[in-house]
TrEMBL record:
Localisation per UniProt entry: Cell membrane
Topology term for the membrane: Multi-pass membrane protein
SUPFAM superfamilies xref list: Family A G protein-coupled receptor-like
Domain G-protein coupled receptors family 1 profile, first and last residues per copy: 44-293
Keyword Transmembrane: yes
Keywords tagged on the record: Cell membrane, G-protein coupled receptor, Glycoprotein, Membrane, Olfaction, Receptor, Sensory transduction, Transducer, Transmembrane, Transmembrane helix
InterPro entries xref list: GPCR_Rhodpsn (IPR000276), GPCR_Rhodpsn_7TM (IPR017452), Olfact_rcpt (IPR000725)
Protein name: Olfactory receptor
PANTHER family reported in the protein's UniProt record: OLFACTORY RECEPTOR
KW Membrane (keyword) present: yes
Transmembrane feature ranges: 29-54, 63-85, 105-123, 143-161, 201-229
Molecular function terms from GO: G protein-coupled receptor activity; olfactory receptor activity
A GO cellular-component term linked to this record: plasma membrane
Gene: LOC100764104
Length: 311
């Protein structure tokens, strides 16, 4: 355990991240698996981004938001997985206090922007299906840019608040994080000072960035479902639902894992389970998103073929 000054004012200067396993024989296998997952995620999301940029058919608000979501997915997995890969290859699992706070900040910045962006995408589908005649007015280029900028601003405010609040806590030891990256629930367990304010801030953030967006998404898709059911043509209903199914799948994965991660504060026994949930949230979800959005979308598939052929 690395501590700063001696005495009552001693404080932790580094943390030890246990990671996914302490068995040396398993680490090379996990390294290969997560390296492949990381490369696949980077390649898949940048392919989606390239397809959106080169295909004129995809120059629409929905794909503009999808392109931003791909960038966020790349950032989210880059914040967590490279550190994990490094620890698989080395017995040194220490991470500096400042580096831990930086990882926490950027993870919450990217994940928070994801929350708001998924809400904006639901609103976009609501406008496209329920108000098609005024869609171009209500979702103009200026509104698209403003929506993304506000999503980043709100998320930045929350990430900064959580990080600054965490930096006021004292860590006198132990300094072992039973996870593969630095996050609030695990760090709260290690604090030797009161975390009441931090838990209250996290509760407010969960309401503002979790509950409110989820309610807005639900309301948006409630209106969409009602509008689609009024379409007489079965082909028309199928086409309308197909434009929303991908987004709903991503929302389900994102919010499902988020709820399990942050609604069980203070449960030490849940730490090992949280690693699996963390993998779903930080690795599996960003890796699957390109597949989910391209699987039933012929326009994206056609653009991806152009990208892969180098045209």
């Amino acid at each position: 355990m690395d501590l700063g000054a001696s005495g009552n004012d001693s404080c932790v200067t580094t943390f030890v991240i246990l990671g996914l396993t302490e068995t040396p024989a398993v680490r090379p296998i996990l390294f290969a698996i997560f390296l492949l997952a990381y490369v696949a995620t980077i390649g898949g999301n940048f392919s989606i981004l390239a397809a959106i940029l080169i295909e004129p058919k995809l120059h629409t608000p929905m794909y503009f938001f999808l392109g931003n979501l791909s960038v966020l997915d790349v950032g989210c997995i880059t914040v967590t997985v490279p550190v994990m890969l490094k620890h698989f290859l080395s017995n040194d699992r220490h991470i500096l206090y400042g580096a831990c706070l930086s990882q926490l900040f950027f993870f919450h910045l990217l994940a928070g922007t994801d929350c708001f962006l998924l809400t904006v995408m639901a609103y976009d589908r609501y406008l496209a299906i329920c108000h098609p005649l005024t869609y171009s007015t209500h979702m103009s280029w200026r509104i698209q840019k403003a929506s993304v900028c506000l999503s980043c601003l709100f998320s930045f405010s929350n990430a900064l608040t959580q990080t600054v609040a965490l930096s006021t806590l004292k860590f006198c030891g132990p300094n072992i994080i039973n996870h593969f990256y630095c996050d609030l629930p695990q760090l709260f367990q290690l604090s030797c000072s009161s975390i009441q304010l931090n838990e209250q801030l996290l509760f407010v953030a969960a309401a503002f960035m979790g509950v409110v967006p989820l309610v807005l998404i639900t309301v948006s898709y409630g209106h969409v479902a009602a509008a689609v059911l009024r379409i007489r043509s079965a082909e028309g209903r199928k086409k309308a639902f197909s434009t929303c199914s991908s987004h709903l799948t991503v929302v389900g994965i994102f919010y499902g894992t988020g709820v399990f991660s942050y609604m069980r504060l203070g449960s030490v026994e849940a730490s090992d389970k949280d690693k699996g949930i963390g993998i779903l949230n930080t690795v599996i979800s960003p890796m699957l998103n390109p597949l989910i959005y391209s699987l039933r979308n012929p326009d994206v598939q056609g653009a991806l073929r152009k990208v892969l052929r180098g045209r």
